[in-house]
Amino acid sequence: MFVHALWATVYISIVAQVLGIILGLIAALMRMSNFRPLRFLSGAYVLVFRGTPVLVQIMFIWLIIPGRTVGFGAFTLKQEVFAGILALGVNEGAYMREIIRAGIDSIDKGQMEAGKSLGMRYGAIMRRIVLPQAARVIVPPLGNEFNNMMKTSSLVYIIGVYELFSDAEQVFSSSGNVAPFIAVAFWYLVLTSIWSIVQASIERRLAVSEHGDELSLRERAVAVWTEGGGVSRLGDWPFGAGGRWRGRS
Amino acid sequence: MTSSPEGLVLRATEVHKHFGRLHILKGVSLDVRPRETVCIIGTSGSGKTTFLRCINHLEKIDGGSIEVNGHPIGYRMKNGRLVEDSERNISRQRTEIGFVFQRFNLFPHKTALENVTEAPIQVRGVSKQEAVSDAEKLLARVGLADKKDTYPGKLSGGQQQRVAIARALAMKPALMLFDEPTSALDPEVTGEVLDVMEELAHEGTTMIVVTHEMGFAKRAADRVVMMDEGVIIEEGSPEHFFESPTHERTKAFLSKIL
């Protein structure tokens, strides 16, 4: 039972976060559109979903979605699970819009112009030129958002979704024992700690692929093994030109 | 050397452009024939960069018309009125026009080779193999065959600009536009970029170069155009231009810069 609750929290958080990223990207692109109604819609979306409590949004969406299940075949979800994910995702999208927009804004306008001058179309420039560069700016705050999401997802217990917190709440209401809440706090801590490690490794990888003046880790490794580390480019490599790694290559 | 209007690569007629209340281009007309190299000179603020950007519709124009290879750029007739063309058509027209930026604008997350192959693969639908072999030839032509797997961040300014030239050439454009291609470079590396451009000019590439490099204009240009306050005030062969300019403003400008 408990494993199911843990899995439900992980599952709901991931799906809601992915939904939030997609909605945030759409809203960010709408915000930058030349077409005024799209900009307005994007603004209204953020205003409403950042300006009202997520708990209210969860209740509201749960109340307006009919039926006991949503979806078909293997993609069937209990109504309350669907409503919970939808509410968390839509709420998250409003925050992701700002994060993604800041990421896109951080990319020099010349990149868009260069793409245009080569005959690339807006979508292709976004997908292949701007967003891959913006990712480096977007990922760190995105990681924090997901950390938040795992904890905030506990709110869906209010509409009867079975997950970590509601599992503890059930044990508490039948026994009056406080211990389940300590246990549940511990498990959230485990989840967020695992995520911090994952996040750090993603950020490291993005930093490595940032090809500024420094050599990337991979290039350093390649240079060290193939050229004996004896190239002048490796001045800042800790094992320097002709360092102790040289003999190995 | 006369040719019919249909044979022109560029025909710009009475181009007007405003930035807010600033009237930047006040009726610029310029024809460019195939294989011709035209250098546009003039003080900063004279509108020469704006004019260049209008040619591939990086800037919209407020009046007049621009045709490249006989196709109007950025606008089409609809119910007897000129309306801005669709993004798809504008993009297609831009494939005919190469643009080299003052600040290179290379894609920093792609290698030199990938910068050059990106548009042929994505826009023209060329196979990767063919795009790579073309790109390697182009990089060799600009003297950077050995830098193909290097990222822009590790190239010097001059090398970056040469990659940018190769990137623009990869689309096999009918017209190459250069917007002050050496202005952002250290003096010691401007030569390597100008050499590449001069070679292109002598090989018969049709190009328009906005530049402050008078030496380059003298050596490479078929025609020099002087812009001042949003209009072309004088144009002619380099000999005419540098030896016997007629307009007072041109004389003043040249005496300052030479």
Task: Tell me about this structure.
- Chain A has helices at residues 2-31, 36-51, 54-64, 79-105, 109-117, 122-152, 164-175, 179-208, 217-227; strands at residues 69-70, 77-78.
- Chain A is mainly alpha-helical and 249 residues long.
- A two-stranded antiparallel sheet of chain A has the order 1-2.
- The radius of gyration of chain A is 24 Å and the shape is globular.
- The termini of chain A are far apart.
- The model of chain A is unreliable at 212-249 (pLDDT under 50).
- Chain B is globular, with a radius of gyration of 18 Å.
- In chain B, the strands form three sheets. A six-stranded mixed β-sheet of chain B has the order 8-9-10-3-11-12, with helices on both faces.
- Chain B contains nine helices and twelve strands.
- In chain B, a hairpin with a 2-residue loop joins strand 11 (223-228) and strand 12 (231-236).
- Chain B has 258 residues and is of the alpha/beta class.
- In chain B, helix 4 packs across helix 5 and helix 5 packs parallel to helix 6 (187-202).
- Chain A binds chain B through residues 108, 110-111, 113-114, 116-122, 124, 128-129, 132-133, 209, 211-213, 215, and chain B through 56, 58, 87-88, 91-92, 94-95, 97-99, 101, 103, 105-109, 118-119, 122-123, 151-154, 167-168, 171.
Low-confidence spans of chain A: 212-249
Dominant shape of chain B: globular
- How is the quaternary structure best described? heterodimer
Structural class of the secondary structure composition of chain B?
alpha/beta
Helix-residue proportion of chain B: 25-40%
Query: Mean pLDDT of chain B, as a whole number?
Result: 92
Question: What's the N-to-C terminus distance of chain B?
Answer: 30 Å
Return the string of H and E elements of chain B: EEEHEEEEHEHHHEHEHEEHH
Binned, the helix content of chain A reads over 70%
**Most extensive protein-chain contact, per-chain counts:** A-B, 22 and 29 residues
